[in-house]
Every structure is written in structure tokens, then in C-alpha cells.
Amino acid sequence: MNALERFGLAGKTAVITGGARGIGYAVAELCAQAGADIAIIDVLAEQAEDSAKAIAKATGKKAFAFGADLADAAAAKAVVDEAHRALGRIDVLMNCVGIGPNTEVLDIPAEEWAQVMNVNVNAQFYVGQAVARKMADAGGGSIVAIGSNSGFIVDRPQPQAHYNASKAAVHQMVKSMAIELAPKNIRVNAVAPGYVITEMTKRGMSNPEWLDIWVEATPMGRLGKPEEIANVMVFLASDAASYMTGSIVLADGGYTCW
After folding, report:
1. Where are the beta strands (DSSP E) in the chain?
2. Would you write out the chain's pLDDT as a tens digit for each of its 258 residues?
């Protein structure tokens, strides 16, 4: 393998959670472009199927789609088993599932708090654990999670205490998993995006006051693109990052520097 080939995923397989749209779709597409057969897992089953078909047609790689509520531990394990059977093995897991409602801290209902934690933290763990068991049996692999700059700082001006807390939890979970799984040749890392143009952020972008603050607070003076986050995630999954584990890589246009 030459130096540049280490940056790709040729001959590998990748599971992408939350891959039906947004950053997850960009990650799934880039994994296939980098040479991997893929499986998308998303609660949006029909959209996941459409996304997988589009990626397969564009890249010529195998692309499977599975619908599942990954916040359900049993469902997460079952769908990982399905993806494993379809792909034959799982070399890479890209954990891109997440939600981000905006509610004032005094008004967050218990159900909304629980939902954010269930999707952003529990779902990532359930899938990560199930895939890591497969990887351990196979001799290793790479897991890359979606964290957030919100796991380092409190974003402004939007209220999102539950989202911020969930992303800090993801970062600590990644580090903990990395330490325990390193002897099994499984690397675990995360990318922490800043503001990226996705369906989730478009809600906030419709508020001119919020958008102005987000752009002004980002030294690069713009929001990111999903493919820019995908670039970092595929690097972390690749052999080019073979000495990286437990890393939380910021990709936020410099937002957290100020």
C-alpha cells in the first residue's frame, strides 16, 4: 500500500448510522467513493433506501439500507447483525445519528431531555458496542463518532442544554471506548463539527439573528459543508490515522478558538 492509498477505504466495509441525509449521507457517499462497500442504518428507512441506491449507482459499490430505531438496544443489535450479514464483515463504523432541538432550559420537558440523550448518546453507544463486538472477533476495526464543538463550549444564542450535555457525553464515551478497545486493535475517534449546513441547522439559519451570530463567531466567516466533515471522518477511519485513537478532532472553522 502506497502513502496515498492509506487515506482511502479500498476493499473495506463501512456502516453509517444516520446516513439517509445530511452529514451522514455525505459520509456514506465518501466512504463508497473511497472504495468501501457500505450499509446505511437510519430511522428514516425509505430515505435510507433511496440514498443507498443513489450511492451504489454513482460509485458502483455495494450499498445496503436498513431502517431501525437505534435508541432501542435490542433493535440496534439486531440491525447490526443484519448489516454484518449483508456486508460479510464490518471494518468501519461511522456513527452520525443525532438530533438537536432548541428549548429554553427552564422549559425542557423530561421527555425531550430523554429523547436527546437516547438518540445522541445511547444510540451511538448501542451501535458502537454491537459493532465493536464484531470487530473484536474479526481482529480490529475503526469507529468514528459525530460529536460537536458544543461538547467543548456552550453555543450561542440558541438554547440547547440537553444537546450540549449529550455531545460532551459522546466525547467522553469515545475516549473511554478507545482505551478499552485499543488492545483489541479497534480505534475509536470523533469529529466535533461547528455549524454545518444541514436539515438540522437550517431551522436555526432561518432566524437571521442566530445566523449572524454563528457566522460572526466563526473566524472563517462561514458555515461548513457536510462534505467537509465527511473528509475528516474518512481520514480518521482510514489507515492514514492508524496511530490515532481517543481523539476528538474539531472541524469548526475556528469557532472554539475565541
Report:
1. 13-17, 37-42, 63-67, 92-95, 141-146, 186-193, 248-251
2. 788 899 999 999 999 999 999 999 999 999 999 999 999 999 999 999 999 999 999 999 999 999 999 999 999 999 999 999 999 999 999 999 999 999 999 999 999 999 999 999 999 999 999 999 999 999 999 999 999 999 999 999 999 999 999 999 999 999 999 999 999 999 999 999 999 998 888 877 888 899 999 999 999 999 999 999 999 999 999 999 999 999 999 999 999 998
Angle at 194 between CA 116 and CA 41, to 5 degrees: 50
Residue whose entry in the numeric block shows the C-alpha cell 438530533: 99
Cα–Cα separations (whole angstroms), residue 82 to 94, 147, 214:
16, 26, 40
The Cα 204–Cα 197 span in angstroms is: 10
Of 126, 163, 195, 255, which residue is the catalytic one?
Answer: 163
Complete DSSP assignment for 61-126? S-EEEEE--TTSHHHHHHHHHHHHHHHSS--EEEE---------GGG--HHHHHHHHIIIIIHHHH
Known catalytic membership, residue 163: yes
Q: What is the DSSP letter of 38?
A: E
Q: What is the pTM of this model?
A: 0.95
- CA–CA gap between residue 14 and residue 12 (Å, rounded): 7
Residue 161 has which C-alpha cell? 442544554
Residue with cell 448510522: 17
Strand pairing of 63-67 and 248-251? Answer: unpaired
Sequence-distant (6+) residues with CB within 8 A of 99 are 115, 116, 119, 120, 163, 200
- 249: which strand partners? 191
